[in-house]
Amino acid sequence: MKIGIVCPYSFDSPGGVQYHVRDLATELIRRGHAVSVLAPVEKAEVPNFVCKVSGSYSVPYNGSVAQLSLSPKAVSETKAWLEEGNFDVVHIHEPLAPSISLIALASSKSPIVATFHTSMVKSRSLKLAVPILRPLLDRIGGRIAVSNEARRTLIEHQGGDAVIIPNGVYREPIATAPDIEKWKGTPERPTLFWIGRIDEPRKGLHVLAGAMEEVVARHPNVRFIIAGRGDDTPVRELMEKYPDNVDFAGDVDPQTRNSLYHGATAYIAPQTGGESFGIVLVEAMSAGTLVIASDIEAFRLVLNGGALGRLFTSADSADLARVINDVLSHPQEAAQLAATGHEAAKMYDWGVVTDKILAVYSTVVGTASVQVENTDTLIDSLRQYFSNRKE
Fold first, then answer.
1. Would you list the DSSP string of 80-109?
2. Which residues are in the Glycosyltransferase subfamily 4-like N-terminal domain (predicted)?
3. End-to-end Cα spacing for the chain
4. Average pLDDT, whole number, for the chain?
5. Of the candidates 380, 371, 381, the residue with the CA atom closest to the CA atom of residue 106
6. 86-109 in b/e burial notation, b at 16+ Cβ within 10 A?
7. CA 122 to CA 125: how far, in whole Å?
8. In terms of pLDDT, which residue wins out, 120 or 182?
9. What pTM did the predictor assign?
């Protein structure tokens, strides 16, 4: 098949959706499909299957700041990509994001599959926009949600339903990653790993920081390995407060990240919300590492209510400290739970996930797209609306 994949978020600030798109495209190409990915890119190095769109800008979105593109140039480039590609199917991620996904949704003449990643409790802007965008939503032939939370958001905010197909991981590179000796956890010197956007509150570094004092008091040889990008001031302050217990790995590449997962005694996921799926949990489980996660809905589902990892009360540093201390005090039980999680992670392998996505493609290929009039006027109106929300 000739498959076009649209990613609304800039590859200059990579995150979960961008990695999902890249890995899906890689697996589809490995299977012999012709794939082109359209995404906003300014400076980042990207695979040769990525077609770059320029002119992204910052927009507050789901408790974060997303780099999106809805410029007149992006409109013309997206239309040209669609025309030249003449795809059997166009797979649009986050179709209502104010970016090239929305442009592609309005402009594609090919059958459309859409994947919904976002989880949110409420969104005033989305509530206002959906009635206007309803004709575009009707163009979607196959809908995918990456989790129950993403499906709930779709149903509550936009209507309709979707088949749940989770995010995927390449398990083998994580499971076989070589340990980094200086950060490898041992019974005498256990390591707890955190990775995320340091200056994004919902990623929960402050929750982990609040648990450190009690954990260090009970287990003075423990080490916290912190990795990620953003303003590292909070990490520097922790290193000053706990010079023997906190290390900063910086903004690590995927290979180093895999090694840190693999070598850790436990992976800590203290996110406070805004997560539709726990891909980082699956990555840690693929490494055979125990997961300790906040009990937000998306994480409870991945960990099967605590059967595949440990849960603590969200945003509660004291409860996180309690769970960490219990894990470190009972290493055999922790190892057994980690092994159970490792086995369960097989269902998220990209080979399994791609089979399910291809099955959705097969249901829409050859069908006609619903035509929508005055799409250029609609896009101009949306551009003006979101331009007023730039940061």
1. HHHHHH--SEEEEESTTSTTHHHHHHHH--
2. 14-169
3. 40
4. 91
5. 371
6. ebbbbbbbbbbbbbbbbbbbbbbe
7. 9
8. 182
9. 0.86
